[in-house]
Each structure stands twice: as C-alpha cells, then as structure tokens.
Design goal:
Number of strands: 10
Number of helices: 9
Strand order of the largest sheet: 7-5-4-10-9-8
Strand content: 15-25%
Shape: globular
Helix content: 40-55%
Largest sheet: 6 strands, antiparallel
Radius of gyration: 21 Å
C-alpha cells in the first residue's frame, strides 16, 4: 500500500491524551428519534446557512457579506457569527473585522472520511456489543499521525461511559487504538509513520511507545486483538482490533470501559470474541456488496 502523507502536526505528540469516564445524560422526555417528525429547527438551519456562506471564493467575510449571501438580517448574522466563533467553527480578525472558517469545521466531515455505508452497517452491531457488555464501542481510522473517531455507541444500561466523541483525535503513537492500526499495516507504511512520529517524542518516551507497540503486535498475532489498561486513564481498559475491508483504508474497532466492568474474564469470554465477530461480519457484508 502506498504510504499516505502524514500531514502537518496539530499538537505535540509526546503528551498522552487522558480519557475520562463521564456520566452519559439520558435522552430528554420529548426525544423521539424521528427528525422528520420534529421539524426543522430554525436557529440550527440559520447557523449552517452562515457556514455555507463561506463555501464561495472569498476567504474572509464581514457580517454584511454573510447577510447578503444568506438573506438573513445583519443583526441575526452578527449573533450567529459570535456564537459560531465561541464554538470554534469561525475565527474573527480584529484587524479585518471579518470572519473565516476555523479548524473545528473539519470535524464535521471526519465521519465522511470512512464511507457512510460502512458506518451504517457497523452502527447496529456496535450498539449491540455496547449493550451486551456495558461499554463504549467505536470505529476509528487514521488522520495524519492521529487516530480519529468515525462513529461511537454507548451502552443503554450503563450511564458511565468514555468521554470521547465522533471527530475527536488522539495521537496514534500513544493510543492502543493507534497501536492496533499500526500492527496491521505493511512494514513500509508502518516504518514511514513511525519515522514521522519519532521527532515528537523524547528518547525515553519513544522507547516506551515502541515497547507498547511491540506488545500490541504480539497480542494481535496471538488472538487478533490487543488489550490495554491504564493508557487511557488509570481505570480504563481498551480492547482494539484492526478492521481491514477490501479497497478501503484500514480501520480499528474498539470497546472501552471501566476496568471493573471490562474485566479480563469478560474480555476473554465475551467482549474480545464479540469484537472479532463484528469485524468478520462487516467483512462478509462488504464482500457481499462487492460487484461481480
């Protein structure tokens, strides 16, 4: 496989990203899950209209420019632009007195980096695994030297879940999800990525990363998945397995949860085998979709 460009660094990659267990809020009583029945929410529609205004040739736009492109009142545009700036979707230049798209807009498209049909096929299988084991389940892939989360599911029966969302990044070198991906790559591509990660780490840290990667490779060679406890946090266990579908970039399926929930016995008897079975089912579904 031809090695893809690693892309510019977005952060220091010698710092581990700590992941927290959070309490998942229940759905509000009025939630029905039927978007059509709920109707269009005007403020959201207007917010996306403001973002769409930047899809033309102009990089920087003033409030009056946005108002002309969207047909919205200038006062409404001003409020929406300030809100979108506070959320990280726009950036404001005091000198120009204009706005432009910010980096956070990119996260809206990360789920589309993996084909939509894969996500649609994986989601019900992921939700079942999450519910069966009371854990967080996710599908992730590579973005430069990072791993990015394409989709995730939370257990309906366990309010305590991993605090990671779709589009969120974490350094590949310091994550069990990244080690699972690296373990399945051709040695040339793996070497290319490791060479580009190396400058972001101190010598001792890099030696620890290489040791973790070696351990993950050995686990995957033995049982097709790797297990990590403590790398995402002192009380979080992660189980990750490579997912390779024909004519698609390699991805990773994973489940994670509190160590007292995702015990060694549960991993070996249920979560690990179910994770592998889900991968095989997705490969089978993909093969059935292939033409001819």
């Amino acid at each position: 496989m031809k090695a893809a460009a690693a892309g510019p660094a977005r952060r220091r990659r010698d710092v581990r990203k700590d992941v927290r267990i959070v309490l998942r809020a229940p759905n509000p009583p009025e939630f029905r899950g039927d978007a059509a029945a709920q109707g269009i929410i005007k403020p959201i529609e207007r917010g996306f209209a403001v973002l769409d205004a930047f899809l033309g040739e102009a990089e920087w736009l003033a409030n009056q420019d946005i108002a002309l492109r969207t047909g919205l009142p200038k006062a409404t545009v001003s409020r929406l632009a300030q809100t979108l700036t506070a959320l990280g979707y726009l950036t404001y230049s005091e000198q120009r007195r204009k706005y432009r798209l910010a980096v956070a807009v990119l996260t809206l498209g990360f789920a589309a980096m993996v084909d939509t049909d894969v996500v649609l096929q994986a989601r019900p299988l992921m939700q079942k695994l999450a519910d069966d084991n009371g854990v967080f389940v996710a599908l992730a892939g590579r973005d430069g030297l990072d791993m990015v989360f394409f989709e995730n599911c939370h257990s309906a029966s366990n309010a305590a879940t991993v605090g990671l969302g779709v589009g969120e990044h974490m350094p590949m070198a310091s994550s069990p999800v990244g080690w699972a991906l690296l373990a399945c790559l051709h040695e040339n591509e793996r070497g290319y990525l490791l060479d580009h990660m190396r400058p972001y780490h101190k010598r001792d840290d890099w030696m620890a990363v290489r040791q973790k990667l070696t351990e993950a490779e050995a686990q995957i060679a033995e049982k097709s998945y790797c297990v990590s406890t403590g790398d995402w946090g002192p009380d979080i266990t992660v189980v990750a397995t490579p997912l390779q579908l024909a004519d698609r970039l390699p991805m990773v399926l994973l489940c994670a949860g509190q160590s007292r929930t995702l015990t060694k016995a549960r991993v070996e008897q249920r979560a690990g085998p179910q994770l592998l079975a889900m991968g095989r089912q997705l490969q089978k579904m993909e093969a059935q979709r292939a033409p001819g």
